[in-house]
Amino acid sequence: MEKYEQAELDYIAGMKYKEIAEKYETSVNTVKSWKQRYNWVREKRNSRDVKKECAHKNKKVCTQKIKGAAVSDETEKEQVFDNTENPALDERKKLFCLFYSQTFNATQSYQKAYGCSLNTARAHGYELLRNVEVKSEIEHLTELKRQQLLAKESDFVELQMRIAFADAGDYYAIKGDKIVWKDSDQTDTQLVREAKTVKGDISLSLYDKQKAIDWLTKYFLMHPDDKYKAEFDKKRAEVKDDSAEQILANMQIITDVLKNPVPNRKIEDLEGDEESEQTGTTE
């Protein structure tokens, strides 16, 4: 289940934008864009059924704080362990797996998890890595970390998509002879670089669309299977790209020169011929 699908269940159940954003570690504007893009509607399902579905999909977790574990101030907090993942491991082994998946240092991870001396950690850290259950749990945590990184990358791609195809008209409305700002709840404010009203005139500046398009073009060349590529290609096709048309025209000119060599002929001459054909005039 995609992140935005899980967020939709929470929205239907009655959660606010801010609460959903905090739960899925994203911005309020991203949540708003999900709502608009995927047409979330609160009356879509009975809230009681949605809550049951959410409860069914969320795994049960318990929090444990290990006494005696030598953990730094930054990491000395409650660690969340999933009981269903690997019940064969005790809490200290789970701590070791957690620390190792972050640092890939067996000695340091063992010392933090067990609160022992450096010599003891050196003696037992790599030995613990040979444990089949420990190895399996580390692989699981590493994969989770990889998926989180991919999710963050996906969020950035989505942001670039929104910037690339943003419409300034979404931010204001015309009422009679006046132009007024739309309510912030109805707009994606994350795309606005600057917005102000000067002497009754509205001034709006969005982030650079062309830079976003250039970045996405390069990104999709390297990631042709990305889920956003089809949407990007579709929207690009809907938008007239004069620069692309000019490039194609120049390529056609060069091709004609190569196919029809004429002594002392210049590209400028061919461009002139092309203009004559378009206007229907001859010399």
Looking at this protein, list some descriptive labels.
4 domains, Terminase_ssu, viral release from host cell, two-stranded antiparallel sheet, viral genome packaging, 57% helix, SPP1-like_terminase, 283 residues, two-stranded antiparallel ribbon
Structural class by helix and strand composition: mainly alpha
Unreliable segments of 5+ consecutive residues: 57-84, 273-283
Order of helices and strands: HHHHEEHHHHEEEEHHHH
Shape: elongated
Helix coverage percent of residues? Answer: 55-70%
Q: How many E strands?
A: 6
* Number of structural units classed as domains: 4
Average pLDDT figure: 72
Largest sheet entry: 2 strands, antiparallel
Across the major sheet, the strand order is 1-2
List the helices and strands and how they pair.
Layout: H1 3-12, H2 17-23, H3 28-37, H4 47-57, E1 61-64, E2 79-82, H5 91-103, H6 106-114, H7 118-129, H8 132-164, E3 172-175, E4 178-181, E5 192-198, E6 201-206, H9 209-222, H10 229-238, H11 242-259, H12 267-279
Antiparallel strand pairs: 1-2, 3-4, 5-6
Helix pairs in contact: 1-4, 2-3, 5-6, 5-8, 6-7, 8-9
